[in-house]
Model the fold of this input.
Amino acid sequence: DGGITQSPKYLFRKEGQNVTLSCEQNLNHDAMYWYRQDPGQGLRLIYYSQIVNDFQKGDIAEGYSVSREKKESFPLTVTSAQKNPTAFYLCASSLQGARTDTQYFGPGTRLTVL
Amino acid sequence: AQKITQTQPGMFVQEKEAVTLDCTYDTSDPSYGLFWYKQPSSGEMIFLIYQGSYDQQNATEGRYSLNFQKARKSANLVISASQLGDSAMYFCAMREGISSASKIIFGSGTRLSIRP
Done:
């Protein structure tokens, strides 16, 4: 079945550590996105990528980094520079990132800083 | 300025009744798209329905329909014959422009609870 997978489902991090969240899709979509969701809030865009080896900052990119070496994969690293990383992280993809393209989401990763 | 406004933080509806979730948006771009997503307690975002700014008719997908009032900048989601499984958070979202680099902006959501 085609879809988006994220791993791990739950992640615990000590302060000062970097952690990487995985996002893989087999939908043959060109565009991929990372969002952060805080309790009771909507989604905020962290980074997005329209094509392999290219990505752009979203609204809250500080303290995060990404790479897009393969079309299927868009890992997100939460660095120690991110002051308040505890949140729910959602990865999404869309066909080409055009106005009409629907974004489809993975199941999410819940990150907790201890 | 907030671009997507959902004024109902929470709603309770009796099973089998219809429910309308409000969404207003703000944009000066004549070309945009509007989306509704459902987020159950599991956390995954589920796409429900899409409306383009140039679409002449209101979008419908099964029990979901979008009441699109362009002049009022309103894109309310209507769920007919609500079911217990409809209990979830619902998010309205907008994408502006025709550029492939355009982003989706989400509202703060409405929590819908269906009573048996």
About this structure: Chain A has no helices and eleven strands.
